[in-house]
User: Which sequence fits this backbone?
């Protein structure tokens, strides 16, 4: 690399800096406008920072020559040092940032209060609700299903159903049939029902469009048509009442029809009295 020729004022500026003298205003103004002087001053400062063996040279002319000679070497070393420093610091900054994020996340997890889990309210009668408000039914011997009492039952002509009420009374229904169910009773609109009434403290009530049948524990058959209802007692006793006839009590083997004719035993043709219990 060839030495750069400096003008007289450049020489005076460098000599004043090397001698550690304060340059006058003329030299300072020249230094602000001269790129070569600025590079030489930068090289001198780098030499001082590097701590080279020539940094404390006392002879001005020799020191100037050293500055010019070492300028390209010091400049290249400085340019190489910058990327290496950045290359080392960049991963360190990333690592420090990741570490800080982990610390913050752990602190948040440790200090976060556990979410409150509200247990479902305990209802004393929850377990008994399905039994009190639903019945089971099996159609044509199929799967037994649990159904709400709010749902009516309808069977086609060739269908048969077995129903168990909440009080464990059993109804055998032959289609076509339409009926609604109660916890201890039923209302038959149409069809043939054989009822096996479970014993209980409350009366079992079966209603039809033509009358009311009440029992405590017995087996009877009820068949409802469009204009009348027939009742047959198989075991126990049944009380039958309607709007058009007095109340009667039927025993095993007795039948009664309500509707077009007055309630009475179809076997005897007479109305059983209440004292025949």
Assistant:
């Amino acid at each position: 690399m060839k030495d750069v020729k400096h003008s007289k004022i450049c020489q005076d500026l460098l000599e004043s800096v090397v001698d550690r003298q304060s340059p006058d205003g003329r030299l300072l103004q020249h230094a602000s406008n001269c790129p070569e002087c600025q590079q030489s001053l930068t090289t001198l400062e780098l030499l001082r920072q590097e701590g080279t063996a020539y940094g404390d040279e006392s002879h001005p002319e020799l020191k100037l020559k050293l500055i010019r000679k070492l300028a390209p070497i010091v400049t290249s070393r400085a340019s190489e040092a910058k990327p290496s420093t950045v290359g080392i610091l960049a991963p360190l900054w990333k690592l420090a940032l990741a570490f800080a994020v982990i610390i913050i996340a752990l602190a948040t997890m440790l200090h976060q209060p556990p979410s409150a889990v509200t247990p479902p309210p305990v209802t004393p009668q929850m377990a008994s609700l399905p039994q009190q408000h639903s019945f089971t039914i099996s159609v044509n011997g199929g799967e037994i299903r649990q159904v709400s009492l709010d749902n009516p039952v309808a069977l086609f002509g060739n269908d048969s159903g077995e129903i168990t009420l909440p009080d464990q009374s059993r109804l055998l229904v032959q289609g076509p049939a339409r009926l609604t169910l109660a916890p201890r009773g039923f209302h038959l609109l149409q069809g043939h029902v054989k009822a096996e009434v479970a014993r209980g403290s409350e009366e079992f009530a079966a209603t039809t469009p033509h009358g009311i049948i009440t029992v405590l524990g017995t087996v009877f058959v009820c068949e409802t048509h469009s204009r009348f209802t027939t009742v047959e007692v198989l075991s126990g006793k049944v009380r039958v009442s309607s709007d058009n006839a007095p109340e009667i009590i039927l025993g095993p083997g007795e039948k009664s029809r309500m509707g077009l004719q007055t309630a009475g035993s179809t076997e005897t043709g007479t109305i059983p009295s209440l004292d025949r219990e």
User: Anything to note?
Assistant: The radius of gyration is 57 Å.
